[in-house]
Each structure stands twice: as C-alpha cells, then as structure tokens.
Amino acid sequence: MKHPVDVHVGKRVRHRRWMVGMTQQQLAEKVGIKFQQIQKYETGMNRVSASRLWDIAEALTVPVSYFFDGMDGAKVLSEGAATEASGLPDDILADKEALELIRSYYAIPENQRRRLFELARVLSDAAA
C-alpha cells in the first residue's frame, strides 16, 4: 500500500520535472537510473531513498525540502478534504493542462501577464 508521504514526494518530483520541461528519461539519465524507476517514484509505488532524493533535487535544481512543501499531518490523514472545501482538485498541478497554462502564463511579459491576471480574476468573479 502506498504511503501518503511517498505519494506527495512523488507528485512534487513530477511537478518540478514538468515545470522545468524535463522528461522522465532525461531525469533518469541525470540521476543515473532507468526511467521506469522515475515512474515508480512519481506514483509513490517506490519510496525514494534520501541519497536518491538528494540526486533528484540536484538534477531539478531545488532544495530537498521542496519535495515536502505543502505537506502537513492533517493533509496526510485526510486526503481530499481540500477538494471538498474549495471545489478545486486536491492536486491541481497533477493536471497537465494546468501546468501548461502556468508555463504559458510565465512566458508572457510581466506587464501583459498582470493584465491577464486581472482579466482572469474579473471573469472568475463574474462566474461565481
């Protein structure tokens, strides 16, 4: 059975890999393992050892603590509570479309990005 901490760490590995535009194969090569092992880490099927997490953090240029961000005891005990409370998926960044939107958003020049953000805020208020 998958432990919620292993699942969370795996999701954070996947999120960061997607954000930097790296494939599982590319990450595996940087870390010196097969891409199937990256797949198992990202799904929480296999636990990531401390030394391997260190190597992954270096390859993805983040501190090791990044993989534990957003995790607290209450979340581990009650997966899905955030979905019910906010109406949003518990792990919105697991959606490839959401990640593509974020990448595209940050590729827009800052002044235009601010205007787009304000437009999105107005449109979301109008829908509510």
Automatic annotation (TrEMBL):
Q: Which Pfam families match?
A: HTH_3 (PF01381)
Which key words tag this protein in UniProt?
Answer: DNA-binding
UniProt KW DNA-binding keyword? yes
Q: Which part of the chain is the HTH cro/C1-type domain?
A: 21-67
Single GO term (MF): DNA binding
Q: Which CDD domains match?
A: HTH_XRE
Q: Which PROSITE patterns match?
A: HTH_CROC1
Q: Which GO terms describe its cellular component?
A: cytosol
Q: What is this protein called?
A: DNA-binding protein, putative
Q: Which organism is it from?
A: Roseicyclus elongatus DSM 19469
